[in-house]
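Re: Re: token formats

Sure, here are both.
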Amino acid sequence: MSKNNVQPITPPKRAASPARQRLRGGAEISDEELDEAMSALNEVQRAKVQDVAARAKRRASAPPMQLAMEGDALAISYRGKNDAAVSLLLMAELGTCDPSFHAGIMRQVAALGAQGAKVDETNSNFVVSVVRAVEPRDELETMLAVQMGAVHAATMMMARRLNHVTTIPQQDAAERALNKLARTFATQMETLKRYRTGGQQKVTVEHVTVNAGGQAIVGAVSHGGGGQE
């Protein structure tokens, strides 16, 4: 075979690795770009990134949501090729085995990304990621996690507004709304904690100081109706 007839050999593409990370609102980077980025990090930084990548692999998240307006209706789709597999993954992440609950909660989450005729799926996917981080064990925890994601988004919106106020009344209104939302989120966190622990609280005493002439008692101390015991 003559030299002019030699065809260049194209190396086969590598299969997508589990370490592939979605960046900038869902845009993916190739394995080559990921390797180049990793090479720019020091050993400690690489270890941290690899730990996060391993956690992401174990989580096996469902693909992101895609939203589009079809006439007056909000259409929901996903980037996965197998709709049944995507639904199963989402139901597992939502802590439910009820298809009706799955369909209802995802439509509510999708509505967070629709503002009139404008669609921004980033906000909806953010709320789903909050639910995923909470790792709900049932439908009630999922609903609370969705509300927590929505309240956080509203909190940051009010924080942004507070940074751009031009009058005292605007500042006062933004501050009140921001404080209410921040307190609501803290209450939601406490509610989730109480729900998961069955309302039980555990108090651990780390140090006990007894002054001279005093006596330390370890255990339950009860008082009767007619005097001390």
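Second one below.
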Amino acid sequence: MSTSRKSSISRPGVSSGKLVVAAMILIAAVLAGITVWHHWSKGYASIAYWGAANGENIRYAPIVKLKTAGKSFDISKARGLVHFRQALIEDASFTGTTAQEASEPAWTHEVVFSWPEKSDVTVVQFDLERGLLALPEHPNALIAKPDPTLSGLSTFFADVTSDASQ
């Protein structure tokens, strides 16, 4: 008899291939859960401030208008609008809130988010000097981080108003 013949040993139950596949599925599920939690937690405080309907309008409304210095600009297709919207709903853009009454904001810019088929609109007011933004009827205002949020807002507004005037 030849001793070079390979002998296969079979184990009853689970093979190592099945264990590897099960481990990969488990790791994928855990990582998916972490991703969902991470994205949910990035906007928790901002969405609590805006509310669900306003948050939806800020993120998805197809008609976006900027009002400043007595002029109105349609910025619905403006370059940078996606980043502008994202900045408004991410907690990382803000340092906290302050009472509107105590901060005495001078609202210089107003952005209106709306839908053609709905009467529901969201108006966000901006005081770029003090770094504040707020819903008109809300008692508190959000405080924008100086960099990159406030500087980004100033740049975005300057860009969309200069593009429209050219």
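The CA atoms of residues 10 and 124 lie 68 Å apart. The first strand starts at residue 63 and ends at 68.
- S.
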